[in-house]
From TrEMBL:
The record's note on its domains: Consists of an N-terminal FAD-binding domain with a Rossman fold and a C-terminal substrate-binding domain.
Protein name according to UniProt: Flavin-dependent monooxygenase
Keywords: Cytoplasm, FAD, Flavoprotein, Monooxygenase, NADP, Nucleotide-binding, Oxidoreductase
Binding site for FAD: 48, 105, 279
SUPFAM superfamilies recorded: FAD/NAD(P)-binding domain (SSF51905)
Annotated residues for binding of NADPH: 41
Gene3D superfamilies named among the record's database cross-references: FAD/NAD(P)-binding domain (3.50.50.60)
Segments forming domain FAD-binding: 6-328
Oligomeric form and interacting partners: Monomer.
Cofactor(s) needed: FAD
Function in brief: An FAD-requiring monooxygenase active on some tetracycline antibiotic derivatives, which leads to their inactivation. Hydroxylates carbon 11a of tetracycline and some analogs.
Pfam family, one: FAD_binding_3
Main localization category: cytoplasm
Length: 358
């Protein structure tokens, strides 16, 4: 029997996991990525990989041991402060706890890329759109496949062939920068081995340790997404100097990152020859679910394709499991964002994290 021709649009974590698990099962796949090379841009900060989702996907990919060699279980430490700098919540992982260890996104992506057969990812192949079973590239060329999977993120080029829904602004934005621990050891001690956050009404300062002595820091707020950086930083005037220093001592240019999401429960009529995974399917607020869910999507779609010779039947099985799971986590993250950025300030944050860890 001839293997199906499978195209994955986007070399993010979900698309790469799909490709890896397909190859584990002996199925060929081609990944199209618009970036010219694996190292053409920074891949962002750190991620927590959850037992039952991200780690399950890595196990299906045969990469769990390699992941654990790179992961930082100590990164599960969490601290919550109020705007006066008072520590109100502190959780440290128990010895041997690897339920949600941290790993830099770039390290995880590199692990997945390195696990693929040579030539799997075709770099510098930007996709314009999908139509039927065709992938149309920005250079005007096209290729035909039995299945086209949109794994190309929030602003997916494949999604419009399945759904006319587009992401909407959540009402929360952040500006992001970072600093080196070696230059600011006292600030690094405030952050600890994992993450810290300080909350006030409708705003927060969040810092998270990455590998190699780097700490990412964000000023986040509920309000218009186009506020100038200086105005955002001024929103924290009067907060504890130790908290404000995380922002004022940052040594990278601040970058604005408004948060967008697809509607909770986003889905589409089953369409032969096309489907979506990860943020392309269910973009949600970044409260720890997105990357884990994208990787689980990819692993489960690959296993369905390996188990079912009828591609259309395999995609139906994948979508029937993915839609309700994404709706459940989409509701959780949307409600969580509303709690964290509310007039309650730190009281809401303490209630939310207390429920999660209690």
């Amino acid at each position: 029997m001839t293997s199906p021709r499978i195209a994955v649009v986007g070399a993010g974590l979900g698309g790469l996991t799909l490709a890896r698990v397909l190859q584990v099962h002996g199925l060929p796949v081609t990944v199209f990525e618009r970036e010219p090379s694996p190292d053409s841009r920074s891949q962002g900060g750190t991620l927590d990989m959850h037992v039952g989702s991200g780690q399950t996907a890595l196990a299906k990919a045969g990469l769990l041991d390699e992941f654990r060699a790179l992961a930082r279980p100590e990164g599960q430490e969490m601290r919550i402060f109020d705007e006066d700098g008072t520590l109100l919540f502190h959780e440290q992982p128990a010895d041997g706890d690897e339920s949600m260890p941290e790993i830099d996104r770039g390290q995880l992506r590199g692990l997945l890329i390195g696990s693929l057969a040579d030539g799997t990812v075709r770099w510098g192949h930007g996709v314009e759109r999908a139509a039927g079973r065709s992938v149309l590239f920005r250079d005007g060329s096209s290729e035909e496949f039995d299945l086209v999977v949109g794994a190309d993120g929030a602003w997916s080029r494949v999604r419009p062939s399945l759904s006319q829904v587009t992401p909407a602004y959540t009402g929360v934005s952040l500006v992001e920068s970072g600093f080196e621990e070696a230059r600011h050891p006292e600030l690094a001690r405030l952050v600890g081995d994992g993450s810290m956050s300080a909350y006030g009404p409708n705003k927060a300062v969040v810092a998270q340790r990455n590998s190699n002595g780097r700490i990412r820091v964000h000023a986040a707020y509920r309000g218009p997404q186009d506020r100038p950086v200086a105005e955002v930083l001024s929103m924290f005037d009067g907060w504890a100097e130790s908290i404000r220093a995380l922002l004022l001592e940052a040594d990278e240019p601040f970058e604005a990152r408004p948060l967008f999401a697809l509607p909770v429960g986003h889905s589409w009529p089953h369409t032969p020859g096309r489907t979506l995974l990860g943020d392309a399917a269910h973009l949600m607020p970044p409260l720890g679910a997105g990357a884990n869910l994208a990787m689980l999507d990819g692993a489960e779609l690959a296993e369905a394709l390996a188990a079912e010779p009828d591609v259309d039947a395999a995609v139906r099985a994948y979508e029937s499991a993915m839609f309700p799971r994404a709706a459940r986590l989409g509701r959780f993250t949307t409600d969580g964002l509303d709690v964290l950025f509310s007039p309650e300030g730190v009281k809401g944050a303490l209630r939310l994290f207390g429920e999660l860890t209690g």
